[in-house]
Here is the input.
Amino acid sequence: MIGQLIEEATLSGARLEAAAGAIGLSIRTLQRWNLQDDNSDGRRGPSTAPANKLAPAERQNILDIANSPEFRDLSPKQIVPQLADQGVYVASESSIYRVLRSENQMTHREPSQPATRRKPKEHVATGPCQVWSWDITYLKSPILGQFFYLYLIMDVWSRKIVASTVYLKESSNYSARLFQKACLRLDANPEGLVLHSDNGGPMKGATMLATLQRLGVVPSFSRPQVSDDNPFSESLFRTMKYRPGYPSKPFQSLEEAQAWVDGFVNWYNTEHLHSSIRFVTPDDRHFGREQMILANRSKLYEEARLKNPNRWSKNTRNWKPVETVYLNPESKVETKLLDAA
Here is the structure.
C-alpha cells in the first residue's frame, strides 16, 4: 500500500524523495523493498519496550503536575527545578517535554498573549532616494576584542553607497549625523524617504529617531535577530569582506580603516558591475546613465543575432533596466528580485 501511494504521488508530479519523506521512509528503504519479490514490509521495529519506559501512572502524574494551578503556566524548564526545591522528582525535563508533546500540550502555556514577530512592511523603490538601508559592521582593530565600527548607508534602488564612515563606537548621534550628511551630499529630500535598519541601539536611539521624525523620514526596522529582513546591507557587507582586497590583518588606526573603506566605496559605486541591476555600476544607475548603457548592449546583441541567427534559439539577453526593487516583498515572486550584492 505504501508503495502504491508513493507511486501515485510521483505520477502526480511529486519528487520521489519528498514523497518518501512524507511517509517517513528513505530512498534506500524503497529501493530495498522494490528488490524483494514478495513486496513484504521489511521494517523491523523494537521487539520489546524500553526498560526505563514511563509507566501509565507516571505519565499521568506528569500530566497532573504540569496542568496543576501551580505549574500550568510554566515550562518544564521551570517546573523541574521548582519541584527539586520541594524535594520532589518525577522525571527529567526531556521526559516531561516528551509526555506533553504526545498529548498535544506543547502550545503556549502562559496566560499572556504569545510574542509575535510580524514581518516588516513591504517597501517599494522605483527610483533613487526612495528607500535606503543601513547597518553597522565591525572592523578589526590592533587591540584584541576591540573594533572599529563602519556605519554604511546604501540606496536600495540603485545599490549606491550614499554614506560610509568609520567611528570608534556605536552611537545614535553618529547615525543621525551621517544620515543628514548623506541627504545634503546627494541633495535628497528626506520627506517620505524610507530608512530601513535592524534593531540596534544606534538605529533606535532617541537622537536618531528624533532626527528622522523632524525630517519626515519613515523609519523601518527588522524583526529582532532576523538578518534576512535587512538583506541589502547584509549582502553588501559580505561583498566587502569577501572580496580579494579585504585586509587579512587588523587596521592599525581609525584613519587607515577609513582610507580602505573610501577605496572600497569608490570601487563599488563606480566600477563594480552589479548583477541585480543588469551589470551596471550603482553610480550609472543612480544618476540615470544606465538607460544608454543597456540600450547599447541590447543593440549589440540584436546585431549579433542578425549576423548569426542560427546561434540564437530564443530572444537575446534581457538588457531592460530593472524598474522596481522590493525590500521585504510580500509575495514569493518578488523575492527573486532580492539578489546578493
DSSP finds 14 helices and seven strands in the chain.
